Amino acid sequence: MSAVTRQVVEATLRQFTDPNLNQDPVSAGCLREVAIDGGKVRVRLELGYAAGLFKNGWAQMLQMALEGVEGIDSAKVEVDCVIGAHKAQAQVPALANVKNIIAVASGKGGVGKSTTAANLALALAREGARVGILDADIYGPSQGIMFGIAEGTRPKVRDEKFFVPLEAHGVQVMSMAFLTDDSTPVVWRGPMVSGALLQLITQTAWDNLDYLVVDMPPGTGDIQLTLAQKVPVAGAVIVTTPQDLALLDAKKGVEMFRKVNIPVLGVVENMAVHICSNCGHAEHLFGEGGGEKLASQYGVDLLASLPLSMAIRMQSDGGKPTTIADPESQIAMIYQEMARCVGARIAQSGLGASAMPNIEISDD
Question: Which GO terms describe its cellular component (predicted)?
Answer without folding.
Answer: cytosol
